[in-house]
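Z., the sequence and structure:
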Amino acid sequence: MRRGLMSWSREELPASVLDERVARLQAGMKQEGLAAVLAYTSFAEPAAVHWLSNFTPYWSEAMLLVLPGEAPILLASLTPRVHGWIREVSHLGEVVSAPRLAQGVLETLAGKGVQRGSRIGVVGLDSLPAAVALPLMETWGAAAIVDAAPLFASLRQPCGKEALALADRALGIGLRAAAGVPADVRNTSELAAAVEASARAAGAEEVLYRVAPDLSRGGALRRLEGEFPLGPAYALELSVAYKGHWIRVGGSHAREARPAGWDAAQVWFADSLSRLAEHGADELAAAPGRESRWTLESCIGVQPLALARTHEQEFARLPPGSLAVFSAHAALDGGHWYQSAPLVLGGGQRGQALRG
């Protein structure tokens, strides 16, 4: 374990910030009549628990239990031998060993005097693993287990200045990794090696990439297994985590002359970013070309980034000050085109694009 990548820097994320987040959740619990809130966490769904406690389980799963007037309790399926590390990198109350998460939750609730059948909110209820959800509902009562996603989403955005600073650091790592790819890169293996070397050296905890290897053939971004040749133009998307804060950035890259239509698409993208930063998620003009589409993603639950809006539908309301990622795809005369960038949404007053 590389301690520098996993430890908690209090200078960047003060414990008082985490305390304030938990206090806001506890106030929301009181308003909604919830005796407790549970938030599940795994490598794939780390966002809610990290936001409340600074903990990310890199190789296992856990459940965070928030009760009124108490510091959060982490029920971890990890063995007790790593509890010291958990306490070092997190801001928590108790750490409880719970190889069976549902049983551990039930026992802890009983030990804290929470009456069976009282309302319990779960962040990420719709994606809670069946091995956890079914025993919990059968024992506690399915009607008493309610979805706490709307409550959490209302607290998670807008984004605080400390989280914005860490997201900006993650963006800088991603931008430098993409810029450092050699111009003569031949295939996806060489591309991945260049990206990994740059991002890991800069302190990224994770860097996930998707590639459209040949934009003259198609624009679908894929996580590729194996080695694929790159065409004259390709697209690269990077999702980077720095101290638990994820950012997504991507773009189209031409190894030869820029395809027709790219310049107009880039102008449209920059204008759209400006509109979003000033007015929020209002309707945007269609991108130039055919089959154009755009998405707006944000952290509003257990996943680091989830769809909040597309060119066709709104899934979640993002208030002014929300940190989001704007992405766009289009089929142009010279081939496909793709671009994505993070920004802070405005709403009558100007937001901002992150600097990186």
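The two ends are 27 Å apart (CA to CA). Residues 47 and 178 are 25 Å apart (CA to CA).

Let me know what you think.
H.
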